[in-house]
Amino acid sequence: MASRKPSANAKRTAAFKAGLGSMDDVFERECARKERSAEEREEALVRKACLSKNCYGSRDDAAEAARACAAHGAPRLHCYRCPHCGGWHLTSKGER
């Protein structure tokens, strides 16, 4: 447990305030934090929507893979062009 002495409390308060930094650049820090957050979201989206899936070079290749999956009992698959890599992926969601 921390000391209750006023001098110890003053030292803790001063150390805390020193760790905060200057308030002069608070808006710059917040903008940088938002940019990092947006980049992390975009990376996660690309990882989920593209990098974790098989990519086919053409629509015909993707359609052939979907037919092969159907022959083995997989649910109906549709192919779509990926907006991230430009290749073709398969999905079980209906065609749009």
Summarize the model shown.
This protein is mainly alpha-helical and 96 residues long. The protein is built from three helices and two strands. It has a domain of 67 residues.
* Range of strand content: 5-15%
Number of strands: 2
Oligomeric state of the chains? single chain
Main structural class: mainly alpha
**Which regions are unreliable across 5 or more consecutive residues at pLDDT < 50?**
none
- The H-and-E topology, N to C, reads as HHHEE
Helix content: 55-70%
Overall mean pLDDT stands at 89
Using only C-alpha atoms, the radius of gyration works out to: 26 Å
- Number of helix segments? 3
Biggest sheet overview: 2 strands, antiparallel
Order of strands, main sheet, comes to 1-2
Shape: elongated
Cα(first) to Cα(last) distance is: 62 Å
Describe this structure in words.
With 96 residues, the protein is mainly alpha-helical. It has a domain at 25-91. It contains 3 helices and 2 strands, in the order αααββ. It has helices at 6-20, 26-51, 59-71, and strands at residues 78-81, 88-91. It has a two-stranded antiparallel sheet. The longest helix has 26 residues, at 26-51. It is elongated.
Keywords, separated by commas or semicolons:
96 residues, 2 strands, 3 helices, 56% helix
Structural topology:
Elements: H1 6-20, H2 26-51, H3 59-71, E1 78-81, E2 88-91
Antiparallel strand pairs: 1-2
